[in-house]
Amino acid sequence: MIESLSYIGFTSPRASEWEELGPAVLGLQLAPRQPDGVIRLRMDDAAYRIAIADGPVDNLDHLGWGVAGPAAFEAAVATLQSKGVTVTREGDDLAARRCVVDLASFCDPFGWRQEISWGQACRQHTFQPGRPMSGFVTEAGGLGHIVLVVPDLARAEAFYMGVLGFRLSDEVRFMGLKIHFYHCNTRHHTLAMLEMPGVTGVVHLMLQVASLDDVGTALDIVQRRGYPMSMTLGRHANDHMVSFYFRTPSGFDIEYGWGAVEIEAAANRPMLYDTGDIWGHHPPEDGMDLPGILRPVPAV
Predict the structure, then answer these.
(1) Do domains 4-118 and 139-292 have the same CATH topology?
(2) Residue 187 clears pLDDT 90, i.e. is over it
(3) Considering only the top CATH level, what class is 4-118?
(4) What is the CA radius of gyration of the chain?
(5) Domain at 139-292: CATH architecture
(6) How confident is the model over 202-222, as pLDDT tens digits?
(7) Cβ–Cβ under 8 Å, residues 170 and 272
(8) Nearest CA to 5 among 284, 206, 278?
(9) CA separation for the pair 270, 45 (Å, rounded)
(10) Is 185:262 a contact under the CB 8 Å cutoff?
(11) Of 91, 94, 97, 275, whose CB has the highest number of CB atoms within 10 Å?
(12) Residue 191 to residue 202: CA distance in whole angstroms
């Protein structure tokens, strides 16, 4: 059902810092400011991919999933409703702010707002990176991947796999964690989830660049500007991404990487990895921090 992560929105009391962080550090382009004051960031010819709105706390505001077109949109709404999910068909005003044709919203079992849409606005040959770089890997693969904390992995999979149609890529067990990775296109994973009883949250958002040098350049900038490093440069065992992680001013981490393998859905057989990395990805010497966006979930 879901074809890609089209866009994503956060709230943060430090949203204004993304006007500098987005272009100068990550190489994203600032989209023209709209009357709502939301900072929107581009990474390709889509009107925008990442939105940071001013808010009292750091939080994930919405996940924007893309479907193929109007028929797929209507089928997705019908599927959600048939499985007991409450769906709201959003009006033209919100669709215009999201830069899509049609939009509907609903919530996952833990309260995260989800949006499905079709017809994401494309402004051909207009993307200009905020600093010299070779660009981002997007297109049919969407903007990247998101890693969520969930209190109950089985319940989460019943929704994200059983309702939204994600497919399992593999499982990684290391450092006492069990992480499941899921795909909806040829990107190795668009979604990953790890279980932490009693809480839900956001671990990181991954942005994939087109050159290894882009990763090294960004790493130099992040270290020079003093952003907290969450994990050093390394290469993952499952998707082979060469990347590093740092904590943004808005609580969640960015994984900035290159070189991930693609997945062939028809031939995919989920694998179990007992290590997260081939090399690198070491946490800080004083230990790894908890995710910056966490909230309690009442027991059900």
Answers:
(1) yes
(2) yes
(3) alpha beta
(4) 18
(5) Roll (3.10)
(6) 999 999 999 999 999 999 999
(7) yes
(8) 206
(9) 33
(10) no
(11) 97
(12) 11
